[in-house]
Design a protein that fits this description.
Number of helices: 16
CATH superfamily of the largest domain: FAD/NAD(P)-binding domain
Radius of gyration: 24 Å
Number of domains: 4
Helix content: 25-40%
Strand order of the largest sheet: 5-2-1-9-24-23
CATH architecture of the largest domain: 3-Layer(bba) Sandwich
CATH topology of the largest domain: FAD/NAD(P)-binding domain
Shape: globular
CATH class of the largest domain: Alpha Beta
Distance between the termini: 10 Å
Mean pLDDT: 92
Low-confidence stretches: none
Strand content: 15-25%
Structural class: alpha/beta
Number of strands: 24
Length: 575
């Protein structure tokens, strides 16, 4: 880092006080810089929890899919913090502080309390070392205006309050736009907040998707229409309520598969040192007309790791191209009925946890997903299409890491005849009905067209990648401070051969692929339509940068991104 003195005190605004804002604030506190002023704007009245770990994203029945040992370092460990919570909290979440260990998953609302406590500690640390910080609760940022000639950023809060800063970091987190919810009775654009799914129903419910988001909706709906219990042998069972005899949950999934089950991770932080170095990135791009090769990433961050960790499995896949590997893995999953496979993977994962032995190929696929997220912007459009259509569908299944208790409940629901899975083709679509409910149109496994009517439909496909136009700060769009994210084709002929609706062409005749969100550089700074970076605006809100960061890596993403952003701001201060 540059050792020159900074030119002046810099004012930094963090928009959003959830996990992203927490990790970014921690970075500045760790640096111990007293020549900055930080103001945090949070639309709710609580810090740390964000949407996933608050009542906006969870009820008591919802649990994390990461354990304490997988969480990036904060102020105190979860196991130490658990010993400080009140008896009421212990009783509410059925936690035994003396028996708790770092390998356990937590109720999400309890984890939200932990994150809130960490934020409170960091604010105290900041005060003790002389960092000026201020928190604005119940403060909805309604616009962000860049003033390049005056070299400052203006933010507007609650439509009328105005503030000026040197740097703004957008950390607003998850966002599920509503399209039909509230207009079509029985139509839910997402299962969040889950309190809205507290419904007594006596008919089938359509669930779109089979991801962790779908499991959230299922856990809530199941509790309102029956009860879980554990028999003498320790098996979870489900008893449907007498007044919900016709209650069923029908999951609709394009691949007809359930996500993989949580197992023991040998490296709980997914080999963060596996990210390719700047030198490796530059060398590979120089060999590939300026693009990063997806095949190189697949070989370097997956196959190479497998060869070291699991040589027998490596011998099976060493000569396979990415497409062939994915086809093999999908074929293996398709051989079994979804719930049979779910049961088998539950047994495999249970052995993995008890023996503390990883299922290496799955862990390495998670490593690949984490490692390619950061440099994905350098992949060619040809490779990005391969990534979107071939590799990401497998990754989304394998690295979901469904916790054991969720698996047990889903299996109990299936055994009770309440939960079913329907495989639907890519042409499936939902037709909302004016009088309420929907018609689900799809082609089944046998190639037959089906149309089923449901009174209640819940879209559970997960956080959507939002477009450039969806960015809520309209002045950034109007003033062209931000630009739509694009990935360029290496070969224009390949663009002509593709019928993808997101392909465009610039004035020089070069083809590109429009991807979701806005353009950012390696430091998460916004980039305008001329390719110029903005030194004042940083975007860390994952729904709006999904085109350049195709895999959301949760808290690991928050830690890695916040490190780059803080370093970039500090470098500017000492420039």
């Amino acid at each position: 880092m540059n050792t020159n003195k900074p030119s002046a005190i810099k004012r930094i605004a963090i928009l959003g006080g959830g996990p992203s804002g927490l990790f970014l604030f921690k970075r500045f506190v760790d640096l111990g810089m007293t020549n900055i002023e930080i103001e945090i704007f949070e639309k709710k009245d609580t810090l740390g929890a964000g949407m996933p770990y608050s009542k906006d994203g969870a009820n008591d029945e919802h649990i994390t899919n990461v354990s304490g040992n997988e969480i990036p370092e904060l102020v105190t460990s979860i196991s130490d913090w658990i010993k400080t919570i009140s008896k009421d909290t212990v009783d509410r979440f059925h936690i035994d502080p003396l028996r708790f260990n770092e390998y356990k998953v937590l109720p999400r609302l309890l984890f939200g309390q932990y994150l809130n406590a960490q934020f409170t500690m960091l604010l105290k640390q900041a005060k003790d070392i002389g960092i000026s910080s201020k928190v604005h609760f119940n403060s909805q940022v309604t616009d962000v205006i860049d003033h390049p000639q005056k070299n400052y950023i203006e933010i507007i809060v609650n439509e009328h309050d105005r503030y000026q800063f040197d740097h703004v970091v957008i950390c607003t987190g998850h966002n599920w736009p509503t399209k039909y919810e509230g207009k079509i009775e029985g139509y839910f654009d997402s299962p969040y907040p889950p309190s809205k799914l507290g419904l007594k129903v006596n008919h089938p419910v359509a669930i779109k998707g089979s991801s962790l988001t779908a499991i959230d909706g299922i856990r809530t709906l199941a509790r309102w229409n029956g009860n879980f219990s554990t028999n003498a042998s320790g098996k979870v069972q489900y008893q449907i309520a007498d007044d919900s005899r016709e209650f069923k949950l029908i999951m609709h999934s394009r691949n007809g598969m359930l996500p993989a089950v949580r197992f023991h991770l040998e490296d709980s932080h997914l080999l963060k040192d596996s990210i390719i170095t700047k030198e490796e990135l530059a060398e590979n791009r120089a060999m590939n007309d300026g693009f990063l090769s997806l095949d190189y990433l697949f070989d370097h961050n997956f196959k190479r790791m497998i060869r070291i960790k699991e040589p027998e499995f490596y011998d099976r896949i060493k000569d396979l191209r990415m497409e062939e590997f994915v086809e093999l893995m999908i074929e293996l999953r398709e051989r079994l009925e979804p719930f049979q496979l779910f049961q088998a993977e539950y047994v495999e994962a249970d052995k993995s946890i008890k023996r503390k032995e990883s299922v290496y190929w799955k862990e390495m696929l998670a490593v690949l997903s984490f490692a390619m997220n950061y440099p994905a912007k350098y992949i060619s459009a040809e490779d990005m299409l391969r990534l979107q259509k071939v590799l990401m569908p497998l990754i989304s299944i394998v690295i979901a890491f469904v916790p054991q208790s969720s698996v047990e409940e889903l299996l109990a629901l299936h055994d009770a005849g309440v939960l079913e899975m329907v495989a639907v083709g890519p042409d499936s679509h939902v037709e909302p009905q004016k009088d309420g409910g929907i018609i689900y149109h799809y082609t089944d496994d046998n190639g037959s067209s089906s149309s089923k009517t449901f009174k209640i439909f819940v879209d559970c496909v997960g956080q959507p990648h939002l477009s450039y136009e969806d960015l809520p700060y309209k002045s950034l769009i109007a003033n062209k401070t931000v630009s739509p994210a694009k990935i360029w084709f290496r070969d224009n002929e390949k663009a002509l051969d593709s019928n993808d609706k997101n392909i465009g062409k610039d004035a020089e005749g070069n083809y590109y692929l429009r991807v979701s969100g806005v353009t950012i550089n390696d430091n998460f700074q916004s980039v305008d339509e001329y390719g110029a970076l903005n030194e004042r605006v940083y975007i860390m809100a994952v729904p709006y940068i999904g085109g350049y960061n195709p895999d959301y890596s949760g808290l690991d993403f928050c830690e890695a991104a916040s490190d780059l952003i803080a370093e970039s701001i500090v470098e500017q201060m000492y420039d």
